[in-house]
Amino acid sequence: MSDAKQPSKGTQSVWAGEDEKDFWGRATQTPVVHSVSFGYTDVDDWLDVALTRQPGHIYGRNTNPTVAVFEEKLRILEGAEAATSFSTGMAAISNTLFTLLAPGDRVVSVKDTYGGTNKIFTEFLPHFHVEVALCDTTDHEAIEAEIAQGCTVLYLESPTNPTLKVMDLERLARAGHAVGAVVVVDNTFATPINANPLALGADLVLHSATKFLGGHADALGGIVCGSKALIDRIYHYREITGATLDPMAAYLLLRGMKTLHLRIRQQNESALRIAQFLAAHPFISGVFYPGLETHEGHAIARKQMRGYGGVLSFTLQGDFDTVRAFLPRLKLAHLAANLGAVETVAGPPATTSHVECTLEEREAMGIPETLIRYSVGIEDTDDLIADLQQALDATAAEHHG
Ligand SMILES: *Cc1c(COP(=O)(O)O)cnc(C)c1O
Q1: What local confidence, expressed as pLDDT, does residue 351 receive?
Q2: Which residue ranges form the domains of the chain, and what is each CATH number?
């Protein structure tokens, strides 16, 4: 899969893209270039940069040196020809879809995409007369049947948010290519440490960099990687419509990414142990984690992922009142909407991944009301398990008492 001559993902997390020493006045760390524009003393040089005959920067909405380093690091980590960045993950997703689609086109995707993505499919694309077919996420035959009817874009996400469903990316990419579709994969949950969808046949891989890539919940960002031909088109849409990544955010994301492999290694390990602990607890009615052998997508996950990721979800016995009682008892978790941070973060889908959706919409997507999404941080695994144990035991005692 990966070129034997390439450094490993861990080494790339630290070094990739950060080798332009001369350009930065030999600073070893990437500086934040806050300048909105870049001045020239020679009009012909300026023209050469404007016409991309020479590398360089002209105006911050188009390109910026700090942002370019972030794009280069992701490009290398995803094994892509090119990459372009955005102000948020949703900007990456919407700009990609609006670049590729025109009225009369058809998209095939699944019901379990990220809540914001689902809104683009159900609200905004139909408004522009793009037809969207949303399939049951794990029903590969049904997805293939929809693809066979023809589509311009096949849009996948694996593992999904918040129920951690897994799709066979190689199999579905093959089906998409058979009808000439551009195959797009949201790789936010896996990260390039755990999976590289381009190597499995996807044409474009995108991320909410806000999550695991940055890892510290202090910067928003998005990125899409793929062939130069596709990325040039998406970049052009973004440079005109303007959802540009801020240089300070790019710096924070780059700084976070130096430890990407260490964080993901710890989170993979903790999430699996926590999932096993939860599966054995009597007050838990269900655990969703692709690393569990009982998970319906485990065999596919084992085939296409190097680790199972830092997010899991579980359902409590009882109703939403149990969720209300349980969550505030967690001492080692922010109750918040983000995920992928160094701190553990927990919350129900109604206020996190699917805050944009109604109760009826969530039920239609098969998201139970007592589901809790738990994004494992880098704390000590035993401390996290002890924290869950005390919160579960206290809530169970109250529930039964
Ligand atoms: C958070 C998230 C997004 C959206 O990213 P933002 O940076 O919040 O815009 C997209 N996809 C997935 C899987 C996410 O978790």
Answers
A1: 73
A2: 8-257 (3.40.640.10), 260-400 (3.90.1150.10)
